[in-house]
Design a protein that fits this description.
Elements (H helix, E strand, L loop, with lengths): L19 H21 L8 E7 L8 E7 L37 H21 L10 H28 L1 H10 L24 H23 L4 H39 L4 H6 L5 H17 L7 H8 L20 E7 L5 E7 L4 H26 L24 E2 L5 E2 L1 H11 L3 H10 L30 E2 L1
Antiparallel strand pairs: 1-2, 1-7, 3-4, 5-6
Helix pairs in contact: 1-3, 2-3, 3-4, 3-6, 5-6, 5-8, 5-10, 6-10
């Protein structure tokens, strides 16, 4: 087991104290991170005590401690999952060889690019969520928002550690750049599309933590297979924290639906205007927000056919999530079929090499996982006797990256003209009226245990505390 130094300026289990140069470089980056947190992190809550979980180790049975902390005092640390003895590369052309403790020169720029892309999303999400604290529907939700925020900050630390420890001067420069690009900035935006989308309401926050954090889960799982062992160990531990973020999304959407169903029953109606007047979010609007955030997150997997993805796989840089469950870990000759536009307003099958299709394989796994929550929400709707079913749109719908980015389809994935898409998009995606309505609901609730009218209370509190617990001392 690795030794954990919690007293150090930067808590860590990587023996940072024994590498003075690296320690100094990271201690130099730390004040820049703190300034970024002050300027771009949760607005106006830095002095408040928040009931937070802090990572203090990597032992599955007890890796976190809970207590009140002002967010700037959160102990952002560097934690890697324990090293596996004799770990071998599990896929690609180097299959069966020893994993690497240092980055091979020929793959340096690919690794750097991927670690920077991953690192960029972490602070981006904190920036997107910066103002949400002002309209939290309860103290419980406010605390969960801040928990997610500090942990995304820790995930940034995780990537910055790799950049500093393994990429020399250009790694240090990239680490600085991670604090200078900003979500939605016209001149220096974040790298990936979804992380520049504005997020000014809690329905979007729950959709983001359900759909976009789940992309994080699948990308981190792919890195957890990497032949570069420090990256694999770093991401394996990040996945432990990530689970709570998706829980926030799944239960958040579930509670919105539950509250709507209660009011539908009380008023005996499914009329959208009546429900909106009663202050709850009608199910068609939930569907529209789902359509938006799900499709945006689909783009994060990259193009269906990607030579980048093939190289990452062949070279052992990035595997498939849960690589062990696939039968063939080399995929040298194998092929798969994807659907592409036929150029005549329809679609056709195209055969590509499996290696080129790695992004699509990961995306398909992701869609399956997204459907688990949808099934659960639909069960609640059915139990309430309401005739409505939520569904994920087809993965050809509203794509900005990949083979479908130049085409238009309806949510079922049938190709349609651009004119038809534009004429009907208000039925499928949040329109101005929907957004204005959702905004009108965003009123802050600060009394412990009380919830805004549009969301049901959670089934239980955090860490065996009551829902009424004072999760943030305002
Ligand atoms: N937006 O060959 P392709 C998370 C670019 S979320 C804008 O298909 P590739 C989190 C692409 O960079 C997980 N651009 O791409 C969640 C490439 O550009 P260049 C984040 C995009 O390389 C919530 C070009 O299009 N982690 O952790 O096969 C809160 C051609 O694309 C987008 C990662 O993403 C896009 N959506 O695959 C907090 C893992 N998609 O080089 C955190 C690291 C693609 O031609 N990244 N492009 O200029 C990767 O593994 C890969 O870069 C991608 C793309 C899977 C994203």
């Amino acid at each position: 087991m690795s030794t954990i130094d919690l007293q150090a300026l930067i808590p860590n289990n990587v023996n940072l104290g024994e590498n003075r140069q690296l320690q100094r470089a990271l201690e130099h980056w730390q004040p820049a991170f703190m300034s970024w947190w002050d300027e771009m992190g949760p607005s106006d809550f830095n002095a408040k005590e928040v009931y937070l979980r802090t990572a203090v180790g990597v032992d599955a049975s007890g890796w976190a401690s809970y207590g009140y902390t002002p967010m700037p005092d959160y102990r952002w640390g560097i934690f890697l999952a324990d090293q596996e003895e004799n770990r071998k590369i599990g896929f690609g052309d180097h299959m069966g060889q020893d994993v690497w403790q240092e980055v091979p020169g020929e793959y340096r720029s690919a690794f750097r690019r991927l670690i920077v892309t991953q690192g960029d999303t972490e602070p981006a999400s904190v920036e997107q969520q910066r103002l949400l604290g002002h309209t939290a529907p309860s103290l419980y939700d406010l605390r969960n928002l801040f928990q997610v925020n500090v942990e995304e900050g820790r995930h940034l630390w995780a990537m910055v550690y790799l950049l500093h420890a393994h990429f020399g001067r250009d790694g240090r420069e990239e680490a600085e750049e991670l604090l200078t690009r900003h979500s939605g900035d016209a001149d220096k935006p974040r790298i990936l599309g979804t992380f520049n989308e504005p997020m000014d309401n809690w329905l979007s926050f729950f959709m983001f933590t359900y759909f976009t954090d789940r992309d994080g889960k699948f990308q981190l799982k792919s890195f957890a297979e990497s032949a570069f062992d420090p990256l694999a160990r770093t991401t394996r531990f990040m996945l432990t924290e990530e689970a709570h973020h998706m829980f926030v999304g799944e239960t958040g959407i579930g509670r919105v639906i539950k509250r709507t169903l209660e009011v539908m029953k009380e008023l005996d109606t499914d009329n959208v205007d009546t429900l909106r007047k009663a202050g709850v979010i009608d199910l068609p609007t939930v569907q529209k927000f789902m359509n938006f955030w799900f499709t945006s997150s689909l783009d994060l997997f990259g193009s269906e056919a990607s030579s980048n993805a093939a190289n990452y796989f062949s070279n052992g840089i990035k595997g498939r999530p849960d690589e062990a469950k696939f039968a063939d870990h080399v995929e040298l000759e194998s092929e798969m079929i994807i659907q592409v536009p036929d150029g005549k307003g329809g679609l056709k099958n195209e055969t590509i090499s499996t290696r080129n299709g790695m992004n699509e394989i990961t995306r398909l796994e992701y869609v399956k996982d997204c459907n688990v929550g949808v099934t659960r929400w639909n069960m609640a709707i059915k139990r309430a006797g309401v005739d409505f079913e939520l569904s994920l749109p087809n993965s050809r719908f509203r794509r900005s990256v990949g083979v479908w980015s130049a085409a238009h389809t309806d949510p079922q994935g049938n190709p349609i003209s651009e004119a038809e898409f534009n004429a009907r998009k208000d039925e499928w995606l949040p329109n101005d009226a929907d957004k204005t309505f959702i905004h009108s609901l965003m009123q802050r609730v600060t009394e412990p245990g009380k919830m805004a009218g549009w969301i049901a209370p959670p089934d239980r509190g955090i860490n065996a505390n009551a829902v009424e617990y004072e999760y943030v001392k305002l």
